[in-house]
Structures are given as C-alpha cells and as structure tokens.
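Action item from last week, closing it out:
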Amino acid sequence: MQTMAPAGVWFVTPGHDSARFPSAHGCGADVALVDLEDSVPAEVKPQARRAAAAFFTAPTAAGRVLGVRISSPTTRDGVLDLTAIADYPVRPDVVLIPKVESARDFEIAAGTLDAPDYRPHLYALIETPRALEELPSIVRAERIAGVVFGTADYATAIGSSKGWEAMLHARSSLVTSAAAGICAIDSPFFDLDDLDGLRVEAERAKGLGFAGKCCVHPRQLPAVTEVFTPTDEEVDAARTIVAAAHRASGRIVRVDGQMIGPPMVKAARALLARVDGRAPREVSA
C-alpha cells in the first residue's frame, strides 16, 4: 500500500441518501464511509451506486479518508457495486468488504478495482462464525489492509446478545489474528441513547487492542474520538521512546524506569505515524 492503513474513528452513512453526505464529510471522523450494503433497501441499490459517486467528488476536510462499504463480492449486488466503483471519476481510498469468509473475496475485489494508478485499502468485515474460523487465512490475504468487527450479524448468527461478554471471544480472536501487521476496527455501538455505555465499550475495545471504532450516528463521535485520540502524554512518551531507541541503535534501553525493547518501540512508532499523519479535527456533540 502507498500509505498507512487508516485507523481511528469511522463513520458510516447510507449511500441512497445524498442529503447526508455533507454531514459525513464534516463529522470529524478519520474515515467516512458511504454504504451500499445493509443500510440501503434492495429497491434503491441502483440509485445508491449512482449517488455514491458524488460522495468522493464533493469537497471534504484535508486528511479525511473516504471509503465505501460494498455488498459481498460473491453476490450480484457486490459485483455491480465493484463495477460501478471502478468507473467512478474519483474512487474511494477504502473499500470495506462485508461477509468475508475467505481470502478469495480480496482477489475478486482487487481484480476488479486495482489499476496502475489505484490500489485501495481493502478491509474485511468479519461477522460470521465461519469468518472467525478462517481468520488465520483471511488476515494473510495479499491485499488485506485491516479487519472490522460486525457485532450485529455475528450475534445473530450465534444466537447471542451483543453485549461485551458475549462478544469478547470474537473480539479477542480478531485482535490476535490482526496482530500480524494489519489494524482492527471495532463494531459500532447500537444503543444511540447510551453514550456512557458507548464510552465504556470504546475504552474496552482500545484496551483489547483495537485501533479504532465505527460510529453510526454523529452524536457518538465525540466520545469515540476522545477515547481513540492519543493524549499529549502518550504522544510525548512515544517520542521519548523512539528517540531513545534511535540513540541506542535499536538496543534495549531504559526510559523513565522501564526497560524498552523492540515491541514497545514498534508500538511507539506506529502511534506517532498515525498522529503525525492525522489532520486536526473538530468534532461537535
């Protein structure tokens, strides 16, 4: 990939309702996605494919990453989505592929979209038990940039609640598998009125190792943004670690009373890469 795979706060808006596009562009999320899948009724999917082209040509804040969630590439709608996107005058930076259960899904998407001047970041939406079983092969797909957890479909598939405890095994598996070098983004929180519950879940997801979280309503953005934005203290600590490692030529060093080895240096560099590449954001409640 030409650039680091996007992480942080993701926001999703329906593709058939272009009146919502300006709000998505200006919401302050790190990644704004236009949806062509579940939030779009079947009868208006053709309209959504046409309307979504404008999502990528409209003005947006500097540094904002724009993407699209397609239908599964193993379905007719997914094939039509990919064909439409390939012909957009401006194409998405991120393509989120739902119902992924095989690395083959990336081959289909990349085969349609990749061009000499265009290689989008392809993310797998993991939302079925079979996908969880196939994670070791999915995360090794040549063109994968990251994984996103889909709580709602996964809970429905196994007949459980969407609560943290019920989803902990799946989340842990996702983060562990993604540790091979790709980022993991957590599922949306679906109770729009429980902002305290949202914050708790976001903090737990970050603590587990997720690099970001999806939002489905603008009112969720301030809490999730606060959780996933590194504090000044975290950034200063990361800069100190990287500087100390540079002076030590990669040897294990002591920083503020702690022994710092290669894994900690790698994590510090990843944090700084995301912070230094992120545009300043204003997120309103």
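Closing note: Residues 242 and 269 are 7 Å apart (CA to CA).
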